[in-house]
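[step 3/7] fold_predict: job queued, chain A
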Amino acid sequence: MRIATSAGRAVLLVGEHADHAVDLAEVSDGRFGPDPEAVYEQWQAFVQWGAQATLPEGAPVEVSRLGPPVPAPRQIFGIGLNYRDHAQEAGLDIPTELLVFTKFPSCLTGPDAQVRLPSDRVDWEVELVVVIGREALAVSPEQAWEHVAGLTIGQDLSERRVQFAVKPPQFSLGKSYPGFGPTGPAVVTADELPDKNALAIGCTIDGEVMQDGTTADFIFDVAAVVSGLSQVVRLLPGDLIFTGTPAGVGSVRQPRRYLAPGETIVSTIKGLGSITTRLV
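[step 4/7] structure written:
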């Protein structure tokens, strides 16, 4: 299934190209939705219903009406240096433990968004985002996927001047300006993906390829990330985990390269679709 938010209501994207939508509250006779967050609070029941549901053809998706598929998570986690090629390009050692920060929920925006740049030092980071479907505490890596609702695309936009103004860095503040968490277009359940552990991931700016990687290059894969976080934190339904970015960010290029007004980022993950972020 592909769960999205349209005009503030939970919808399912359907059709061969996931370009039509059906209102979840309507097709479930009010059992689920219209609140997108409520789907994750009832995840097990929702999955059981979805396995039996016969869905109509739906109406064409209006991309401009899509919002973040999980608009108000209680917790958003970020994982730093989680791709080998990104650690290497930054000249840093491969981590042996999860490097964790947070993004504040007020930074979230949708898959077709306009984001104001607060400075001339904003960087891009395309990321696979995990959405929690069942509460998790002290789960093993073998159990971890049982607690995952699905996956979506994210851009971890980062204001590098704020982030690195002090030591240790202010990761959470530098990554939480309004609009600095584009996500979408939908939360895709793992059964929709041929190989959930090896997804092509990348982004372009005005058509120029900036990042081109695969989640097979994770240092800590999805199961390890969910398990590791759950050893300390109670993960709640609807929580988001930004799992890290592959090589190609602007701050380690020679010369350094940052985002400018008028540019457009297209972030893509195979099987999940793409999101578009226009900078102003």
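[step 5/7] annotate
Residues 2-63 form one domain.
DSSP finds eight helices and 19 strands in the chain.
exit 0
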